[in-house]
Amino acid sequence: MNKKTVKDIDLKGKKVFVRCDFNVPMNEKQEITDNTRIIAAIPTIKYLLEQNCKLILASHLGRPKGEVKPEFSLKPVAKELSRILDKEVIIANDVIGDDAKSKAENLKEGEILLLENVRYHKEETDNNPEFAKKLADMAEIFVNDAFGAAHRAHASTAGIADYIPAVSGFLIEKELTVLGDAINNPERPFMAILGGAKVSDKIGVIDSLLDKVDTLMIGGGMAYTFFKAQGYNVGNSICEVDKVDLAMQAMEKAKEKGVKLLLPVDTKIGKEFKPDTESKTVDWTEIPDEWEGFDIGQKTIEIFKEELKKAKTVIWNGPLGLFEFDQFAIGTNEIAKVLSELSATTIIGGGDSGAAVEKAGLADKMTHISTGGGASLEFLEGKKLPGIECLQDK
């Protein structure tokens, strides 16, 4: 972590623009169903309040695609923040309009203003310089603490840093430290578990991890592309036929590097894509035509478990089955349970795997759950994240 943080800069009494990640799930009644991301921003907000800063918070929520849509309003977030901090959070009715500008101008030390959803403007995702400048004009310092959006070169995550000094908050600092240590200096055996639907989403990560890990376990929908690469039938299972060559290359590379590559040896299949579909477990080489693979089977669970018991560092990104349906969540839940019992560093790469661990009630048993699915993937791949690159170096 060679980037400046809030502790490396004098912030006393300054007007600070803080990009948070308040992209939280809500139900139809606009009630927040999981406030993890809001909680994650609290240490930075509290530190800035201790410095008597005037705080302007910004975030996106969902994908309103440049239109003002009430269901994507940050008003419920302002309410939840007020509750957690036990302090009024003023909400602006716009982002760079008259309401936001006048409220930002009149902020006093120790006050908090939350702007409306930055993605109400398409200029945000276009990283429009004029829009970024208008955001910057409200403040003197930019603090990025939105790790979940750090892989996006948007106006409020990167563009704004062209106009005012930029440093990281505590959340980004923690993410980079934990993920960086795991990748660059892991305690061995170092193992990675990759799941999720598509090989195409993970091929860069597979390639990068094969240079670093001792064991790589693959499950989820992407396993079927590996089965296909070995010439086996996958029935109606999700399979990227155009990525079969990449799966072959990954298997070859694992051999060359002496990395143990574990693929499922059995799979739980279903007749249809629905929660109560008829299901059975078959050998990975024997998936019938009309059936679809939805989870790793019990033999695979046992093999993965035995291997994981030797691990000292584990990174897991992507569920191992269709965990939204209970009968196909067994593989994901069993592996989460094993990880929760290890005396190893266990890092969950946000997104669906984070949600699966939360759903299994095991989140507090992991060393670290990343707040950014896409960002943590790109970081593991060795890509530069625009929301980090734009920050001042120490």
Summarize the structure.
With about 400 residues, the protein is of the alpha/beta class.
3D architecture notes:
- The strands form three sheets. The protein has a six-stranded parallel sheet with strand order 3-4-2-1-5-6, with helices on both faces. Strands 9-8-7-13-14-15 form a six-stranded parallel sheet, sandwiched between helices. Strands 11-10-12 form a three-stranded antiparallel sheet.
- About 50% of the residues are buried.
- Helices cover about 35% and strands about 15% of the residues.
- The longest helix is centred in the N-terminal third of the chain and has 15 residues, at about 35-50.
- It has helices spanning about 35-50, 75-85, 100-105, 120-125, 130-135, 170-185, 200-210, 225-230, 245-255, 300-310, 330-340, 350-360, 375-380, 385-390; strands spanning about 15-20, 55-60, 90, 110-115, 140-145, 165-170, 190-195, 215-220, 260, 265-270, 280-285, 290-295, 315, 345-350, 370.
- α8 (about 225-230) crosses α9 (about 245-255).
- The protein is of the alpha/beta class.
Strand and helix layout:
Blueprint (H helix, E strand, L loop, with lengths): L14 E5 L16 H15 L3 E5 L16 H11 L3 E3 L6 H8 L6 E3 L7 H4 L3 H8 L4 E4 L21 E3 L1 H15 L5 E5 L4 H11 L5 E4 L4 H7 L14 H14 L2 E3 L3 E5 L8 E5 L8 E5 L1 H11 L4 E5 L12 H12 L3 E4 L2 H9 L8 E2 L3 H8 L5 H4 L5
Parallel strand pairs: 1-2, 1-5, 2-4, 3-4, 5-6, 7-8, 7-13, 8-9, 13-14, 14-15
Antiparallel strand pairs: 10-11, 10-12
Helix pairs in contact: 1-2, 7-9, 8-9, 10-11
Question: Any idea what the radius of gyration is?
Answer: 22 Å
Helix content: 25-40%
Number of strands: 15
The string of secondary-structure elements, in order, is EHEHEHEHHEEHEHEHHEEEEHEHEHEHH
Category from helices, strands and their pairing: alpha/beta
First and last CA, distance = 9 Å
- Integer average pLDDT: 95
How many alpha or pi helices? Answer: 14
**Biggest sheet, strands in spatial order?**
3-4-2-1-5-6
Residue stretches low in confidence (pLDDT < 50, at least 5 long) are: none
Largest sheet: 6 strands, parallel
- Beta content comes to 15-25%
The 3D shape can be described as elongated
